[in-house]
Amino acid sequence: MAMNLEKVEGFAELFHHYYSALAPDFGCTEVEAPDWDRLPANERRRFVAATRLALQESESCESQARRSSPGQFGTEGRECGC
Fold first, then answer.
1. How far apart, in whole angstroms, are the C-alpha atoms of residue 42 and residue 40?
2. What letter would DSSP give residue 71?
3. What are the structural domain ranges in the chain?
4. Backbone φ and ψ of 28, nearest 5°
5. pTM surpassing 0.70?
6. What percent of the chain has pLDDT over 90?
7. 10 Å Cβ neighbour count for 23?
8. Are 66 and 81 in contact, with CB atoms under 8 Å apart?
9. Gap between the Cα atoms of 35 and 18, Å rounded
């Protein structure tokens, strides 16, 4: 299951953006959620690795659901089986 590294990194950055944007709603401060470019390299790598694992698990879950219920998914759209 090969994933495009640029897409995974972009998704990780997007996830971090929303994570940071929601910080005030959960009592966090800007110091606790710095901008993506201000994150240490090891933190960015951790976000990318976590994103890659989450996407792989999501794809695996969808694939398993399709195999177990082949008639559940149409050609126009899919329902989540997980």
1. 5
2. G
3. 5-67
4. -95, 155
5. no
6. 34
7. 15
8. yes
9. 11
